[in-house]
Write a structure and sequence with these properties.
Layout: H1 12-17, H2 20-40, H3 46-55, H4 63-73, H5 77-91, H6 105-141, E1 146-151, E2 154-160, H7 161-186, H8 205-216, H9 230-256, E3 264-265, H10 285-306, H11 318-343, E4 348-349, H12 351-363, H13 367-374, H14 376-393
């Protein structure tokens, strides 16, 4: 799921979330939940369901072989179902026929993806919350510290570092709110059978779906969404916006941290940001990770959008392409959020350098222009705006 060149751009926790073992374990959770729901409604024998449930333990399976066989089968679900039936049959040969009864391979994979995505979103949201908290602390601490505002990469007027930090926090707060809404819609059980009609479940398919949703703590959608991917892709779009907002902040910090500017610097830690050739260098690696993510994420989101025109009831190629993009987008999102969550609490802020840079521009201007754009009243206004924004952003999100 990753390469040597991207592992350091994510996090060990996210790489583990999308590991082969974790994903197959999520697929087995679907298998057990389906059997449990169907037995409760009398669609399969209770003894068969129990045999299936007892066998849905990932440690009983050769994960590497199932993954290898998926290339020939065209789906990871096909060799898993084969292996699950064989293993169930060792203990109860009559139960094997009821494995994945009435469901499709896409049902297994989409539901498993929803389960691991929920775990991934929990990791992302936790680090974004830490990032927001650090930014609001910086905004409060430095509300009254004036600095040079820049437009079109040129010196413009006076602002405050606190207001800049509040400005970085605002889109992150909004992103978290939108992610909660989008995930509430997208993280759904998938259960439609081979063409979306649940034909083999004797009219009880919708009830099976509701029972499974309660069991797996996922949304129970009104219909199957095999080729109706709008809510799922909308979640991906929200992740892309989050990564872009983190990247914007990283871009600003990296520019402010250039030696010639010297207004902020990433934390000094052993093994962090050193140069193999130049001992005097301290590279902004947190910003680097966030900027790399903001470069990669738009391509992932574009790929998700491109997969939406899917053929008829089950897609040929586009669904498979969508699946391949999803882990990379989540890895970029968490890598970016983790990088900023670790950078900001110990960000080194040089308020004296900020004042010196401001004064260098102000003093070079004619008196009238200096008064118009660099008066103490403007700095005070920026300080007030910073505290006003902090107050709003600190409020709990509404229902």
């Amino acid at each position: 799921m990753s390469s040597i060149f991207e592992s350091f751009l994510s996090s060990p926790e996210m790489l583990e979330t999308f590991s082969e073992c974790r994903f197959l374990a999520a697929m087995l959770r679907f298998s057990a939940s389906l059997a449990r729901a169907q037995a409760r409604l009398g669609l399969i024998p209770a003894t068969a369901a129990q045999s299936i449930i007892d066998t849905c333990k990932v440690e009983l399976f050769d994960v590497a072989k199932i993954v290898r066989d998926s290339g020939r089968a065209g789906s990871i679900s096909v060799p898993l179902a084969k292996s699950l039936k064989e293993t169930v049959g060792l203990f109860n040969k009559d139960a094997a026929v009821f494995v994945h009864h009435g469901s499709a391979s896409q049902d297994v994979i989409d539901t498993a993806l929803a389960l691991v995505t929920r775990d991934a979103l929990g990791l992302i949201e936790a680090d974004v919350q830490k990032t927001i908290a650090a930014l609001l602390t910086l905004a409060t601490r430095h509300a009254a510290d004036p600095m040079l505002a820049r437009t079109l990469m040129q010196p413009a007027s006076v602002t405050s570092f606190g207001l800049k930090c509040a400005g970085w926090a605002a889109p992150l707060v909004r992103s978290l709110q939108r992610l909660q809404v989008a995930s509430g819609h997208a993280l759904s059980v998938q259960l439609g059978g081979v063409v979306g009609t649940l034909a083999e479940m004797k009219g009880l398919g919708p009830q099976v779906r509701v029972l499974m949703a309660a069991d797996l703590n996922l949304k129970a959608p009104l219909f199957c969404w095999h080729t109706q991917r709008d809510e799922w892709v909308a979640l991906g779009c929200e992740l892309g916006l989050l990564v872009g907002s983190l990247g914007k902040m990283a871009r600003d910090i990296s520019l402010m941290g250039q030696y010639e500017v010297g207004e902020v610097a990433e934390p000094l830690e052993a093994g962090r940001g050193g140069s193999s050739a130049m001992g005097h260098k301290q590279n902004p690696v947190g910003c680097m990770v966030a900027l790399a993510a903001s470069t990669r994420a738009p391509q992932r989101v574009a790929a998700l959008l491109a997969t939406l025109p899917q053929e008829h009831e089950r897609a040929l190629g586009n669904w498979q392409a969508e699946l391949a993009e999803w882990p990379g987008l989540l890895m970029s999102a968490h890598g970016s959020a983790r990088a900023m969550a670790r950078t900001l609490p110990s960000l080194r802020v040089d308020t004296r350098r900020m004042r010196d840079n401001l004064e260098a521009v102000r003093s070079a201007l004619p008196a009238e222009a200096a008064e118009a754009w660099f008066s103490p009243a403007l700095a005070q206004q920026a300080a007030k705006l910073a505290m006003d924004q902090v107050a709003v952003l600190s409020q709990p999100a509404g229902p």
